[in-house]
Amino acid sequence: MTKQFIISAPNSNAGKTTITLGLLRLFKRKNIEIQPFKVGPDYIDPKFHELACGKVGVNLDLFMMSQQDIDTNLSHYGKKADINCIEGVMGLFDGAKKDSGSTAELAKKLKTPVILVVDAKAVAYSVAPLIQGFINFDTDVKIIGVIFNRVGSERHYRMLKEACDDINVNCFGYLANLKNIEIPSRHLGLNIQQIEKFDVIIDEIATELEKTLDWNAILEISKKVEPILTSTHKTVASKNITFAIAKDEAFNFIYPHNINAMKQMGEVIFFSPIHDSEIPKCDFIFLPGGYPEAYLKELSSNTSMLKSIKTFAENNGQVYAECGGMMYLGKAIISEENKPFKMVNYFDFESTIADKKLHLGYRTTITNNHIFKGHEFHYSSLQNDNEATINVTVLNARDGKTDTKIHKKNKVIGSYIHHYFGTPEILLQLINQLNNDI
User: Fold this and answer.
1) Cα(294)–Cα(297) distance, rounded to whole angstroms?
2) Pairing of strands 2-8, 83-87
3) Over the stretch 40-73, which tens digit does the pLDDT of each residue have?
């Protein structure tokens, strides 16, 4: 029977990811099968999860996914695990609207206990009312204990533990305040090679935690979860579609759920817009987001690949492109130094990162009575945009209208939104949108 717990914190930058990665590596060392998950739409932390334990972190997102989707993915990815480790997002109760979509809401829906990571760098006994406040704020959220981060000394830890003892809260241990082992804040532009450099740091975190953390106590108190019985009946028949997914240094923001949906409807193959000379034989191309701005020279110089994709699109090939993938389909991407690099030249616009502006938030796209959920996270913007768009309504998490566009030309759709299409039913709706004249 699999056990399960959630790692959260009172606020962002308290050390959730640092503690999570250390635990994942530590459990792996102990030959405990652990499956990581990540609350929210984040693409970066799941890559760190994979580095730490060899298994990709799977997103669980209450805004984009139904409860059934979440249950199905927990069961599917955690079926061989001894323990599911779910890393939260932001502060425990921080959601898109109040606590909607927050780690706390997920904890209640999954009836899963929470371990609170508390940054102790500049605090001692005052952690008592802080922790007690979180425990009492919503008693349906079961906080089973705390782990302290950035602890200055053993004496400092004893003071923190006294505070926990006085409010009758489990204290599982701590991580010392060692700057050289901290995981820095993730940011747009952190590529795969940079992530791999943190392997040694994750090792050091695990070594420190083994000295100062009662990981056996965490296992003992974690919730036992029965496997969720999910229907094996396919509501959408296989279409025998061959999906080609761009995946390399430049394009790698891909939800595993989306890949699984494609596999249920046909065959999935991968290709590299940087390294391959042309696209593979396929029916459908998926150009995900990633870091094209970090590989402008390589992408622009691969002219045979640019021509191959443009020819496919011009001959009624089905293409779905999001964020970086959409930028790649434009005339050019303009670098931070204001230098243009030629791209596929299919969509009639250019994208630029010369004048960075953050666009961030959940999105609901409503078109032809279909609703697609997703999120935006980018610093680039479009210029000289003369491309046709779909007549859609795009809302933010508070149901306010946004100016986000969905571009469509022939059977090619592109937008800045990373949409979730993690079931065959949603994927089929997306394919229908590509084939319909809108």
Assistant:
1) 9
2) parallel
3) 999 989 999 999 999 999 999 999 999 999 999 9
- pLDDT of 141 > 60? The answer is yes
Q: Which of 326, 337, 269, 347 is nearest to 297 (CA)?
A: 337
d(CA 1, CA 21): 23
Residue type, 318: Q
What six digits make up the tokens of 409? 């030309």
Whether residue 404 is predicted with pLDDT greater than 80 in this model: the reply is yes
Q: Write the burial class of residue 48 (CB in 10 Å: 0-12 exposed, 13-18 middle, 19+ buried).
A: buried
With beta carbons less than 8 A apart as the criterion, state whether 224 and 1 touch.
yes
- Contacts of 142 by beta carbon, 8 Å cutoff, 6+ apart: 107, 111, 112, 113, 114
Q: Which residues contact 408 (CB under 8 A, 6 or more apart)?
A: 388, 389, 390, 414, 438
CA quadruple 244, 248, 253, 255: dihedral sign: positive
Determine the pLDDT at residue 181: 76
Q: Which two tokens stand for residue 375?
A: 């999120």
Residue type, 135: I
> How many Cα atoms occupy the beta-carbon half-sphere of 240 within 13 Å?
0
Q: What are the residue ranges of helices labelled H in 199-292?
A: 199-212, 215-221, 256-265
Kindly state the tokens that stand for 156.
């400092």
Question: Mind telling me the catalytic residues?
Answer: 323
**Cβ contacts of residue 19 below 8 Å, gap of 6+?**
7, 117, 147, 149, 175, 209
List Cα–Cα distances, 401 to 100, 213, 340, 363, 404, in angstroms: 19, 47, 32, 9, 9
In terms of C-beta density within 10 A (0-12 exposed, 13-18 middle, 19 or more buried), how is residue 204 classed?
Answer: middle
Of the CA atoms within 13 Å of residue 187, those in its CB half-sphere come to 6
Nearest 5 degrees, angle CA 288-CA 289-CA 295? 115
Q: Which amino acid would we find at residue 400? A: G
Q: Can you tell me the distance from the alpha carbon of 34 to that of 43, in angstroms, rounded to the nearest whole number?
A: 19
Nearest to 273 by CA among 309, 241, 243, 242: 309
